Amino acid sequence: MTFAFRPLDPPADAELLHRWVTHPKAAYWMMQDARPADVERAYREIAADPHHHALLGLNDGEPAFLMEKYDPAHRELVGLYEPEPGDVGMHFLVPPTDTPVHGFTRSVITAVMARLFEDPATRRVVVEPDVSNTAVHALNAFVGFVPDREIDKPEKRALLSFCTREQFLARHPLAARGVPV
C-alpha cells in the first residue's frame, strides 16, 4: 500500500473526523460526546498551533486515517518526561470500516513512522497511549517502539514509549530507501 498525506482542513474535514472520533471503536480518542462543531474547533486550534500538526492520510486519494505530530517539549508531555533534541510526538487514528483489509493498520502506522522520519531532524518518536490500549501497544511494538514507563496524564494513565530512527529502520529497512511501506 502506498499512502499520501495532506494537511487537515478543519472546516472541510470536520464532518468526516466527527464520524471517526465519535465511533465507539475510537473511545481512546476521548471525543465520544463531541459535536461536529467541537471537532472543527479542536482541529482549528491544532492548525493554529506551531507545535501541533494534523494530517489526513490518503489511500488511493481518499481519506483513510488521521495522523497528528506534536512537539512533546511544548504539548502533551510537558513536565512528564525530559524531552531530547529530535523528539516528535505522534498520534494516529484508523477509522472503523465495514470492509477491513488485513494488515491495513500495520501499513498505516508504518507509513506514519516513515513520514515522521523523513524529517532528518526527527531522531525519536514518542507516544503516550492509554495503558489499557493493548491493540495499539502491539502496533507500536511492530514498528519498533519500546515502552519506557507508565505516566499519569490529566486524562489517562499512559504508557510512555519511544522509537528511535534506528529501531524503526531495523524493523522496516526498506523505509530507509524510500520504498513504500
UniProtKB/TrEMBL annotation:
<dbReference type="GO" id="GO:0016746">
    <property type="term" value="F:acyltransferase activity"/>
</dbReference>
<dbReference type="InterPro" id="IPR019432">
    <property type="entry name" value="Acyltransferase_MbtK/IucB-like"/>
</dbReference>
<comment type="pathway">
    <text>Siderophore biosynthesis; mycobactin biosynthesis.</text>
</comment>
<comment type="function">
    <text>Acyltransferase required for the direct transfer of medium- to long-chain fatty acyl moieties from a carrier protein (MbtL) on to the epsilon-amino group of lysine residue in the mycobactin core.</text>
</comment>
<dbReference type="InterPro" id="IPR016181">
    <property type="entry name" value="Acyl_CoA_acyltransferase"/>
</dbReference>
<keyword id="KW-0012">Acyltransferase</keyword>
<dbReference type="Pfam" id="PF13523">
    <property type="entry name" value="Acetyltransf_8"/>
</dbReference>
<feature type="domain" description="Acyltransferase MbtK/IucB-like conserved">
    <location>
        <begin position="6"/>
        <end position="53"/>
    </location>
</feature>
<keyword id="KW-0808">Transferase</keyword>
<protein>
    <recommendedName>
        <fullName>Lysine N-acyltransferase MbtK</fullName>
    </recommendedName>
</protein>
